[in-house]
Amino acid sequence: MFRYFLIYKPFGMLSQFTREGDHATLADLDFEFPKDVYPVGRLDADSEGLLLLTNDNFLKTKLLEPRNKHKRTYYVQVEGSITSEACKELASGVNISINGKTYRTLPAQAVPLDEPALPERNPPIRFRKNIPTSWVAIILHEGKNRQVRKMTAAVNFPTLRLARWAIGDISLANYPEQNQPGSVWEIKGEEVKRLYQ
C-alpha cells in the first residue's frame, strides 16, 4: 500500500534516516514512519520546509525526473534589498558551479516577496543592523545541489534563510496548522492526485 507523508523539515536536520556526524536526521522526528518510506529529493541541512516521503517509486521518479518540469517553490531571505534586475537574471538563468563545472540554470520564476508567515528559525539568522534583508520567491523545475543558494550568490544577494514552500501545487499554505518545524502529516486521495498533476 502506498503511503504519502509531508513534513516541515527543521533547519539543521538532514533529509535522510541514516546518521551522519552530529546532525539530526528524519529518524529524530517524533513519528514512526513505515520502513519502506523515503524522502523524495533533498533539502540540505541549512534549509527548511516542505519535504515529501513516500514508498511510491513511480511518483518519486516522476517528481525527480527533470524533463517532467515539476515545479518547486522556495521562499528565500537574502542579504540586501533584492532588485528587479536581479530577479530578471535569476529568471532567465545564471551560471553556477556544479562539481567544479559551470552550469547554466534553466529558466525559473523569481519575484520579490513580502516577509512570509514562516515559523521562527532556531537558531535565528545573524542580524546585522546596517545591512537590510529582503525576500524573494523562486520557482524551479530542477534541483541541483545547493542550487538556490548558488543562484542568489551569482546575482550578489547571498541567501540567509531558505524554505521550500511548495512541491507542485501542494503548499504549506494548505496546512497552516502544520507550519512548524518537525510537523509530520499524512496525505491521501485528492491531495496525492495533486502531486501527480
Automatic annotation (TrEMBL):
Pseudouridine synthase RsuA/RluA-like domain residues: 4-154
Keywords: Isomerase
EC number, UniProt record: 5.4.99.-
Gene3D superfamilies the record matches: Alpha-L RNA-binding motif, Pseudouridine synthase I, catalytic domain, N-terminal subdomain
One function term, GO molecular function aspect: pseudouridine synthase activity
Top-level class of the enzyme under EC nomenclature: isomerase
Any one Gene Ontology BP term: pseudouridine synthesis
UniProt KW Isomerase keyword: yes
Coiled-coil segments: none
Family: Belongs to the pseudouridine synthase RsuA family.
Name by which UniProt lists this protein: Pseudouridine synthase
Species name: Dyadobacter psychrotolerans
Lineage: Bacteria, Pseudomonadati, Bacteroidota, Cytophagia, Cytophagales
